Amino acid sequence: MRQLAMALILVLSMWAPASAQSAAGAAVFDRIMQEKCRKPDSELIKPGTTDQYNAQAKGFNDCLRIYVQTENNKITQIRADASSQIDSIKDGAFSQIHDIERAINAAIIEVSIVNGGAQESDLPPPATALSAFPPAACNKPDAALLKPVKGKPAASIKNQDRFEDQRLAFEACVRTYIAQAKNEILQVKANAEFALKQITGHANPRIAQINDDVTQALNDARVASGERDAKMNAIHSPLRMDGVSPAAYQPGGALSGAFQPPQIQSDGTESVTVNGARLPRSADMPSGAGDPDAISCRAPQPLTDSRLMGPEICKHNRDWAKLYKDGFNISPDGTHPVPSEKSLTFHPQDCVIQSVGGTGVATYCDQGDQN
Fold first, then answer.
1. How far apart (Å, rounded) are the C-alpha atoms in residues 221 and 341?
2. Domain boundaries of the chain, sorted by first residue
3. pLDDT tens-digit map of 353-369
4. pLDDT tens digit string along 114-159?
5. C-alpha gyration radius of the chain
6. CA spacing 20 to 30 A to 269: which of 2, 194, 317, 360?
7. Whether the Cβ atoms of residue 282 and residue 317 lie closer than 8 Å to each other
8. Nearest to 13 by CA among 236, 237, 220
9. How far is Cα 51 from Cα 57, in angstroms, rounded to an integer?
């Protein structure tokens, strides 16, 4: 990571007695810091009377050095914060995709079990209640249809045909489910890419602005150095170089590494939507209306105390309906149920203020009955 370099004005040390640089330099430094690194006055450069200029130059050098280091630290922090957010988004997306892939694999094994190619023990562990994607809700064919009728060596042709129709319907249902699940993976990736662009689109302009401000300060240093050189040439006096020449500064790029993706200027909280075998998708909590076995998704929600968005949450309509009926929603990060706005409206908290040991008061709040 390239840091911003520092350009310093040279102190005219040949003409400046050491005793003149201490008290005067400290006082001028404080003033220059308050005035945002004011350039030293080149008109003060006169043979034998350069103490005041040297004090100003020292204050300017110290001020500029602190300013550039402070701005470097800002850039470092911006990059660190953005990197942390990017890692969080990537980890969340990978976790969601792994969860969906596990659901797809389970559905494929279910079909294989029905067709006699796998066993129940081949299934992965069941998904958790708060899994980002639900299992398939496809009706398996009735295995009892293949049992021989009493007194017959095999099941009736009619029952075998019924079983085959159910098996084909089950496979068709699973194919639709897998297509939706794969498209949901694309949706998760699109959401993550959108969030990454928002982060870089926020960080890059801030870094660029800091670089522009520092470049302007360093240009001021070059101007001051040029004024000093011109004044010295005018009076034909020798000068010993003790500082660092501003010409040594080579401006670096404002962006690096992971902070080069295209920027977007959007403050919206809704991410992009993938086309294809899409599941119903709501900006807020789905009501659960419609086919109970169908899957509906809630779009990513803003996380508390963060600029990031939580994961997209998909559930069967029956699960959304139960949450809605019980007065709950899923937290923005998808980890636990939380009281819904409806529940908080109709069941506000009851709070009681009690004294505590005569030293103060404490407030106790209980959620009202939601039944």
1. 58
2. 1-278, 281-367
3. 455 454 444 544 554 44
4. 999 999 899 988 877 677 789 999 999 999 888 887 777 778 888 8
5. 35
6. 317
7. no
8. 237
9. 10
